[in-house]
Amino acid sequence: MISKSGEGQTEDPVLSACSAPIQEVYPLFGTQSSGLSEEKARENLIRFGKNTLVKTRKKSVIIKFLANFTHLMAILLWVGGCVAFIAQMVQLGIAIWMVNLINGLFAFWQEFRAEKAAEALMQLLPRQVRVIREGVLKEILAEDLVPGDLMVLAEGDHISADARLVEEAELRIDQSTLTGESHPVKKTRESFSDTGFSRIEMPNLVFAGTNVVSGTGKAIVIATGMSSEFGK
């Protein structure tokens, strides 16, 4: 087991699974080395739902645009500009209003770009995924992937769900969509206990929206859809 000093213990079941020995990981997620049975997979699909990202209801562009000029700080600046005009400080009033206008336009543009980037990231999730069920390697729709499924990973794969590694061979993952980190991250199946690390930093977890740069592996799905780090 890989460990790093730290005080206290986390109650997060996923982080607990990260520290569990391999032989104890399977029962933690109600599965086994031969994968889920088709019956159990159907039960989990009903329980956890489809492995899809739900699009939030969008506000109209006009409302989003006006919101950048009507929040508290913006209102104070509008009022400040009016006070400057009343005091016959025209140049100051114009300057205050121009600052407010530029800030609002910049904020709107940043929000617009962020939304477009998020939509582009959603397209990274694959349509198909390889899993082992009842001891047989199968290719299923990614939306039918459920917690407990034993997912098979290989170079070039886009990962469909958050999962805990149970096997790996020189596995490296590009996690830039989640962390912005440009270099591939080396992954391991070994148990890892560190209360100071977040989920994304755990070396025995892989995440939806990332992709396999090299190596192979098998991982037990622990979170799908909006419950995944990618969906949060």
Q: How would you describe what is shown here?
A:
- The longest helix is centred in the middle third of the chain and has 33 residues, at 90-122.
- A hairpin with a 2-residue loop joins β2 (128-133) and β3.
- 36% of the residues lie in helices and 22% in strands.
- The chain is elongated, with a radius of gyration of 24 Å.
- Strands 2, 3, 4, 5, 6, 8 and 9 form a seven-stranded antiparallel sheet that branches. A two-stranded parallel ribbon has the order 1-7.
- By secondary structure, it is of the alpha+beta class.
- It folds into two domains: 2-53 and 127-227, Calcium-transporting ATPase, cytoplasmic transduction domain A, CATH 2.70.150; 61-122.
- α5 (72-86) runs antiparallel to α6.
- It has seven helices and nine strands.
- The chain has helices at residues 13-19, 22-28, 38-48, 61-67, 72-86, 90-122, 176-179, and strands spanning 2-3, 128-133, 136-141, 150-153, 162-174, 185-186, 192-193, 205-206, 211-223.
- It starts with a strand and ends in a 9-residue tail after the last strand.
Question: Any chance you could write out the topology, listing elements then pairs?
Answer:
Elements: E1 2-3, H1 13-19, H2 22-28, H3 38-48, H4 61-67, H5 72-86, H6 90-122, E2 128-133, E3 136-141, E4 150-153, E5 162-174, H7 176-179, E6 185-186, E7 192-193, E8 205-206, E9 211-223
Give the overall form.
Answer: elongated
Radius of gyration: 24 Å
SS field, number of helical segments:
7
Q: Could you name the ranges where pLDDT drops below 50 across 5 or more consecutive residues? A: 1-10
Which CATH-level-2 architecture of the largest domain?
Distorted Sandwich
Helix content: 25-40%
Secondary-structure element order, N to C: EHHHHHHEEEEHEEEE
CATH T-level fold name of the largest domain: Calcium-transporting ATPase, cytoplasmic transduction domain A
Number of domains: 2
State the separation between the terminal residues, measured CA to CA: 29 Å
SS content category: alpha+beta
Can you count the beta strands?
9
Mean pLDDT: 86
Q: Biggest sheet, open or closed, and with what strands and sense?
A: 7 strands, antiparallel
Strand content: 15-25%
CATH homologous superfamily caption of the largest domain: Calcium-transporting ATPase, cytoplasmic transduction domain A
CATH class of the largest domain: Mainly Beta
